[in-house]
Amino acid sequence: MYAIEFRLEFRAKYAGQFWIGAEQDAIELQAANPALSSMHRGSIALQRGDYDLCSEFYRRALELEPNSVLSHLTAPLPLLYAGRLGDARSAIARARQLFPGESFSLGMTAILAGIEGDQKRAETLADEAAQSTHSLTHTHHTWHSCAAAYALCDKPDKAIHELERCAAMGLPNYRLFERDPSLQSLRKDARFGELMTRLRREHDSIRDEFGLDD
Question: How far is CA 144 from the centre of its chain?
Fold first, then answer.
């Protein structure tokens, strides 16, 4: 299922590499579009767990292309993962001011609430974001943030459901999920382990078929 999805999606070369967890260098992209290259390198750093480096790449991307919707929306992610909650709160507020009603930003607000221990608010916000179809980026990124928020507020069934939706609808990135600190509570859940095993197999299959670096 996931392999079929990505053989269809793979025409989006660099985005496709991140979505499946490939870590190929962005040398060609650097020459063609420096801002997008910086975003790509930041995304690789994110899935490697190097959140400070990711944040720096995202900052450069925004500096190179100040009107980039994607840069504004993704800027809070490494800050959340690194535990820089004050900076993350400011970045989320800026994104929500620029793009009111954006479900991805709402999902990150849910993560922030979960990290701060407000489980009821985290779940409510995640429910709203998960049901929304209003997003300027791919909806699977919103579902990932909802999964993280649910995991933080001890709702493993909801969290696994959102990760399954991510995997089935364009984000089968086991590396990103395995290293996401917000998903820590799912590590001992057999369903999480089974999903990661399945996604790792699909990753290896696609990597070999397309000759990607790993």
Answer: 6
